[in-house]
Amino acid sequence: MMTPPSTQFTQSVAANVKYWQQRTQDLTDDTLPALDQERQNLYRAAKFGLHVPDAWQGTAELLLQAFVFVERRGYWGEWIPMLEQALASCPADNLALRGRILDHLGLFYRHNRQLDAAFAAHQEELQIGLMLEDKWREAHACINLGAVCRQMRRFVEAETYILQSQSAFQAIHAPLIKHAFVTLELGLLGKGKGQWAQAEEYLRYSVSLWREVGDPVYLANCLKLLGEALAAQDKTDAALAAYHEALDCLAHTENYLDKIRVLNELGSLHLKQANLMEAERLLLEANASFLLQSGNLFDRAVVTNNLGAVYLALGRLAEAERFFRGSIALWQICNDPVQQANTLGGLAEVKTAQNQLAEAQQLYAQALALLADFPQDAWGQKLQKGFREAENVLEQARGVGGGGGAVMRDA
């Protein structure tokens, strides 16, 4: 039989949790660096606190309060098990707290590419919102369900949930920031469906709302997405302006992940414009040590793929192959078949350029098999068409190699 913890120990744990609650009460870009240096102490305080009944409630609040720090630093892999434990020990009748835990847990599952788990968490959150007649909880659950369905490429469901979220937020006269998120999601949905003009319209409106809100990180993220929509329509100058404004917004923040994402998109655009040395410089900067050390595998996979595309365009085939294979391994972990198919296509171009035509054909076949499950995905259909054409070329002219740069991502 285990000896119960001493009163002195439980009081010490509770005091430590209270201390970290105070430390994380007002998280800003100025306070994040110091908190980063003591991250393991924060982690231990939360871990111990979950096992001490008298400190449990405070620990649950601490886990939720640290959201900005965890999200902006990409530490969700560490936070997910603690939120799962908090949920498991949360009293069944404390529905309000359960809903908040599910909200954060679902978000971190989505960031971690655990999309089925994210969907289940937000579905439970939605049921709590409906049971409590809590429009705020309902709206949060629905906008997150919309985002998860969009990433799953279930676009009809995604739109239904986003519009339900919009209606719930309007019913309670939610603050402007919530409407900025809704229009952002509608823009992302248009982007996923390949409806670029519509995506641009929503994202421009969302940018205007984020300017009013005054949050530089969210504004930068929306500008980056707007840049992607503009680049897809060959509005290159406007896209460059959006990306550079996004970097300006992030210059005085501690949000490294968003900086990496903007650098990646800038690099991709320079690759599209055949500015290969500038593309390489930007993507190598994005591939810096922070990205490699973080648990954010999706962004690592994207940047690694795009470096492969740069080296393919430069004719540095061995390096291109190395980066494409590294990206494929990451996509398999992330469970994103469309992105994986895109990278397989890039590797097939390398093999074609190396005159290894049988292997190139096998890679195209693998990519097409992955894409067959996504008939509604505009980008997936575009890739499918290109890969079939490439297969035909290989069949008809077996001795002809070559490649002109992998099909770039737009997601």
What does this protein look like?
There is one protein chain. The protein is an all-alpha fold and 411 residues long. It has 22 helices and no strands. The chain has helices at residues 7-23, 32-37, 39-49, 53-65, 67-73, 76-89, 95-111, 115-131, 135-151, 155-171, 176-192, 196-213, 216-232, 236-250, 256-272, 276-286, 289-293, 297-313, 317-334, 337-353, 357-371, 378-396. Helix 11 packs antiparallel against helix 12 and helix 20 (337-353) runs parallel beside helix 22. It is globular, with a radius of gyration of 23 Å.
Approximate helicity band: over 70%
The profile of the biggest β sheet is:
none
How many alpha or pi helices?
A: 22
The coarse overall form would be globular
Q: Which secondary-structure class do the elements indicate?
A: mainly alpha
Could you tell me the radius of gyration in angstroms? 23 Å
> What portion of residues belong to β-strands?
under 5%
Q: What number is the mean pLDDT?
A: 91
Give the uncertain stretches in residue-range form: 400-411
Number of strands: 0
Query: Terminal Cα separation, in Å?
Result: 54 Å
SSE topology string = HHHHHHHHHHHHHHHHHHHHHH
